[in-house]
Amino acid sequence: MSCLYLVVRYLGISLSITWACWGGMFYMSGKVSYDIVVVLEWGGSVYFCFAEAILIWRLYALSSRSKLLLYVLLGTFLPIVALLIGTDIYLYSRPHAFSVRELVTPIITYCTFSFNIGPMPAIYTSIPIVCYDVFLAVLAIGTLVKHLKEQRNYELKPNTYMVMIVRYHILYFLLNLINQISLAILWGHIPIQAMYLSEYFSDTAPFILAPRLIISIWDTHAQDNCVEHTMDTIVV
Collapsing DSSP states into helix, strand and coil, what is residue 98? Predict the structure, then answer.
């Protein structure tokens, strides 16, 4: 689990910094710029998989370490991983579908995206990802509701960390939903100003805000034994 947190934190930072530098901060040819953006898109998919793995592990811990739930979550997550690989190959690794063009102005020369096919493939591939996040969010809310009912029956206060985990889980779902919408509309040949706004959000917000939502609780309980004690308290 410690490795997952480290990957999410530092991979997210690396991707956001690289996205910030890509395009016009340093001059690079169109070919080099295209290769970099393809690597960044694949890196974003890897980052998403690690972030989802942490959410799955949290749900497993909150549900009294149910092996059945863990197998169901992992079994339904594997098709999502396959879908991400297929999406990166079909949408971002083919110059026919996605390319980079160089724009020359009197002040600066920079590169920008060129989306060469319509938005429907991006929309179709984003639907299963959003549905899976809805599934995880519903499970988290259901677990919290069950916990609140049990605590009320015993006239006890809800576990603070369980409430915090579910709250951040829902916020992460909303963030990823907005990100998927932003990525899909980029393929719709929208006005240039709207495209830049959508690019800035999808290239920075998921890699900066998501690690904060995922890691905040881990920062409070940095040692494995503390986390173990917290989860045991939640289960009881």
Answer: strand
Q: In this structure, are residues 15 and 47 in contact, taking their beta carbons and an 8 Å threshold?
A: yes
The Cα–Cα gap between 156 and 120 comes to 50
| Interatomic CA distance for residues 180 and 198, integer angstroms | 10
pLDDT tens by residue, 51-78? 899 889 888 988 888 899 999 999 999 9
Helix axis angle, 120-153 relative to 67-87, nearest 10°? 160
Between CA 174 and CA 8 the distance in angstroms is 18
Residue 47: the pLDDT is 92
> Residue 113's closest CA among 130, 95, 127, 135?
95
SS3 99: strand
Q: The whole model's pTM is what?
A: 0.81
Mean pLDDT of the chain: 81
